[in-house]
Amino acid sequence: MLDKNILQKAFSTMATAKAMSELYEENFKIVSKYVHATSRGHEAIQIAVAMQLLPQDYAFPYYRDDAMLLGIGMQPYDLMLQLMAKKEDPFSGGRTYYCHPSLKDADKPKIPHQSSATGMQAIPATGAAMGFWYKEKTNISEDIKEKPLVVCSLGDASVTEGEIAEALQMAALKQLPILYLVQDNGWDISANAAETRAQNAFEYAKGFHGIEAISIDGANFTESYEALEKVIATIRTERRPFLVHAKVPLLNHHTSGVRMEWYRDDLEEAKSCDPFPVLKKQLSDVGFSENEIKELEKEAISKVKVDFEKAQKAEDPKPEDLFTHDFAPTLITEEVGERNPQREEKVVMVDCALFAVEEIMRKHPESLLYGQDVGGRLGGVFREAATLAQKFGDERVFNTPIQEAFIVGSTVGMSAVGLKPIVEVQFADYIWPGLNQLFTEVSRSCYLSNGKWPVSMILRVPIGAYGSGGPYHSSSVESVLTNIKGIKIAYPSNGADLKGLLKAAYYDPNPVVILEHKGLYWSKVKGTDAARVNEPSEDYMLPFGKANIAQEIWEQETKETISIVTYGMGVHWALNASADFKNQVEIIDLRTLYPLDEEAVLKSVRKTKKCLVVTEEPTNNSFARSLAGLIQEKCFKNLDAPVMVIGSENMPAIPLNSTLEFTMIPNVDKVKVKIEELLNY
């Protein structure tokens, strides 16, 4: 039998969660303005795990875990502020739903931001556990008596998500200190387990060698607490993953907007498994009188009512509160270091990147590099990580499985535990499985946690068409990425910019995507020698949002002039195509697509009076068309011609055949024709 104090605390917490759920139902018209779900029926397992977590632990609750939040010490008032989207909501400042916590209190487990996309939290959570693994392997972890662990809470229905498999695979492969707590109430929303699952989470976990799984009655507090006590102690000492499958009833609505009476046919059966009377009986068995139990329940109800009335009167966010914490501030705002030192010979772009990463890793033990094929045997398919594994070890530079979602999303957890991951997606065409994590988890973390959890990461992406790469190794994806708010995007055209932007990205606390054109890596494409540079100094950094005037002209009185606004390979097409138009073409190399140096672009266009935007992407619905629209809007009174755009043909993919590839994408001659057309307009 458990200690009386443990049972008393658990009962008070459960009574509070139950009182909150009942109060929400009584005041449905007030609280249903915003969607919410409660833990009613799930309380026992949630409280059992919460009571055993320590401040150094990391928790990733899911949207039904309000009892877990109470169990770690949050007050009903705290949760109600989020329920009603109030300004002082401690998690998000009124930005996200009830029970979508993010917490960085010193005396409580840490809760990084996570979305409510069911199951998506498994990858960031596993990333945090991998962060602990890395720190322990490399002896940079804190020396504390009780080693930290990660709890990832999931509903059983979410375990069918493919990204759960990626998380479990890595946890098993690396033997990570993580507990996957799966609460199985038998339902998705209106679909039940028989319709949607071939097996439950306990059965599923057996397929992952290295993950130990148990199945328990999650509605029995004592059974749950004792089982979790053993599991948590094992994870703390043996540093390996567990999955606990807890069977629980759902005693409230799926959410406030999806009422259980509309579709449930098992309500009476569910009520018979209510954890509240079970815990009440356990309290009685250890000597609590009926009056003492009633008094505990009465105190909980009273506390909930007082907090609810107080929360209703709390201040709402002001309009200006919308505009904070989209990014964390960066200290890198000016170009520093030597860009063009005297060297014996120039180096190619890929080597500038390699040297930058090596310098970062030599200086910062919290930095690490992972992705597909970046390890010691190959060092990246473009040799962009050559020799790094040999220099820094297999714990710092390592291969991952083919798991783009994990590569991208794990950076959330890695960053949360104090690391700076540099990760790679092998080709831009492979980024699509990672977009879910990039959009829902990485990009929104700073904003939706109200600034508490910016994701400090670098995602390197080889991009563009080169050498008959065909339809799966040649795509341009910047238009999709620039539509994801909350990330910074670089697209350098030469080695100096790539090194400077990589260094700035490392010291930037925000997520950065660096698009690196494959055709510029080695300057093997005719006309791209300008991508080779004297390697900048080690301290060279180039701030984001500062365009470069790659070719400057004076304002002409007798000649027609144009500005070419471009980036990446487009810079080289523009430089070569403009050779026959002396003093007529100014070229603006954006260098970063977000933030965009709008001032430099508009200043140039207002001087030349005409503008051509050059991109490698197909132009329909593209970033380039959007940029052209911005220029047209801001410079309308200065223009002598419409802003024009040239890019690839608007076909679904880049063909493998070299003739078809050449026909598809822009080149120097095509850009030259467009320059002539615009000059003669």
Write a structural description.
- The protein starts with a helix and ends with a helix.
- The chain has 26 helices and 17 strands.
- It has 681 residues and is of the alpha/beta class.
- The protein is elongated and about 100 Å long.
- The strands form 3 sheets. It has a 7-stranded mixed beta sheet, sandwiched between helices.
Key traits:
681 residues; seven-stranded mixed sheet; five-stranded parallel sheet; 17 strands; 3-methyl-2-oxobutanoate dehydrogenase (2-methylpropanoyl-transferring); Transketo_C/PFOR_II
Fraction of residues in β-strands = 5-15%
* Helical percentage: 25-40%
N-to-C span: 88 Å
Assembly type of the chains comes to: single chain
Number of strands: 17
**Number of helices, counting only DSSP H or I runs of 4 residues or more:** 26
Overall spatial form: elongated
The overall pLDDT average reads 95
Side-by-side strand order of the widest sheet: 7-6-8-9-11-10-15
Q: Which runs of at least 5 residues are low in confidence (pLDDT < 50)?
A: none
Largest sheet: 7 strands, mixed
- Given helix and strand content, the structural type is alpha/beta
- The radius of gyration is 28 Å
